[in-house]
Design brief:
The protein is mainly α. 85% of the residues lie in helices and 0% in strands.
Length: 402
């Protein structure tokens, strides 16, 4: 787990350095457009993952070699190819019927979304077979490095550098995946009896709701405000995102472990594992909020320049929301890895309603600070709702054991 944390921190730190570089080297309007398009691409990526990222994380280690290969073939033929055809149709409509309007943006998204989706799915498989370090390098470290090299050494534009870097990372992940599969010693005769059909819709719904909640602010802000305001908001948002390194790493490590302990009926051990993580996360949340509250203006000025100091208020609001998320620990993953996935889905539905209402109410009036308040509020609501239900579940199990 320590190595996974180190690699994950390195990846987010590299992404952080890249964002600092972009803020200094790229025009604010172009940077805002880049942040807006990449957020849109992430939404599309979640759509075509169909919830498989969580399913792979949960069951990847239990599948035979034959099942893994069949799984990939079915996914590519039934999801990737139809979506690719759809993108070609969109490109045709934009270029020939709309006289090129939005054509560059569509091409950028189309070139990036497929490899981005696939290397993230492959990374989830690496996590499921306990290749945490490899998963983290592929998922978090390589993209910012290649993107920086493309812009700094080859002087590529930000959109070109991103698309090419995503393709390179995808091919690297694919090569590693097939090396691992080729050396897989699992018995093809003893195939794991799984049924993705029921669970995958729950995972898919949760993934969609989660990305909508975390992306709605940027998308709606881009509609009601200028791209410069989007850039200022995105700088604060991505700076706060660094604090999620611990939670992401804990989720990646503990997710498969939660699933294993649950299926082995080791519920007491599962509870102890979760409570240990909560202690670490609660301490981290206090430190994170303190740093951003007391040093936020200095950090923004030092890293991004004087033009981004006005993002301080956004930074504080988002940091408070993130600190509550950290304090509740891997509560969402624990619910998804057990038989309580529907509780998490209910929390997501309610949180989405809160998010949409607040975003459409506050952004037209208050702008970026309204977006920050809406996002922080919906995330706090979701995690507290999940934590409250998990507490009730543990309480019931304790009573039954007694």
């Amino acid at each position: 787990m320590i190595f996974s944390l180190l690699f994950r921190f390195s990846g987010l730190f590299l992404s952080f350095l890249l964002n600092v570089y972009l803020a200094k080297e790229v025009d604010k309007e172009i940077l805002g457009h880049y942040f807006w398009l990449t957020q849109l691409m992430i939404i599309l990526s979640i759509l075509i993952r169909c919830g498989l990222d969580v399913a792979i994380l949960k069951y990847g280690a239990l599948l035979s070699k034959k099942q893994k290969i069949n799984f990939i073939n079915i996914y590519v033929s039934r999801v990737i190819l139809p979506f690719f055809i759809g993108c070609l149709v969109m490109s045709y409509i934009s270029f020939f019927l709309l006289e090129g309007e939005f054509f560059d943006s569509i091409i950028f998204v189309c070139l990036s979304v497929f490899p981005f989706t696939l290397f993230n799915l492959i990374s989830e498989y690496f996590k499921s077979v306990n290749k945490q370090s490899i998963a983290t390098v592929v998922q978090a470290c390589l993209l910012p490095v290649f993107m920086y090299v493309g812009m700094k050494i080859f002087h590529a534009e930000v959109f070109v550098s991103y698309s090419v870097s995503v393709l390179i990372v995808f091919f690297i992940a694919l090569i590693i995946f097939y090396v691992i599969i080729r050396n897989d010693a699992s018995n093809d005769e003893a195939e794991f009896k799984y049924n993705f059909k029921d669970e995958i819709m729950v995972f898919f719904t949760i993934s969609i709701l989660n990305v909508v909640i975390t992306s709605m602010d940027v998308i709606i802000l881009g509609v009601f405000s200028t791209k410069s305001v989007v850039a200022e908001y995105s700088v604060a948002s991505k700076l706060v995102l660094i604090s999620s390194v611990l939670l992401i790493s804990v989720n990646g490590v503990l997710g498969p472990r939660f699933s294993r302990l649950w299926h082995e009926n080791k519920h007491h051990e599962l509870k102890c594992e979760f409570l240990r993580s909560i202690k670490l996360m609660s301490l981290s949340s206090i430190i994170v909020f303190g740093v951003f509250f007391f040093l936020g203006e200095s950090i923004l000025s030092l890293l991004y320049g004087e033009q981004y100091i006005k993002s301080y208020g956004l930074l504080v609001v988002l940091a408070f929301g993130q600190s509550i998320v950290l304090a509740t620990g891997p509560v969402a993953y624990l619910l998804m890895m057990t038989n309580s996935k529907k509780v998490h889905r209910q929390a997501m539905y309610l949180s989405l309603v809160v998010n949409i209402i607040l975003n459409f109410t506050l952004i037209p009036v208050f702008g970026a600070i309204g977006a920050a308040f809406a996002t922080a509020s919906s995330l706090i609501f979701k995690n507290i709702y999940c934590f409250w239900h998990l507490f009730k579940i543990f309480k019931v199990e304790k009573y039954e054991h007694e």
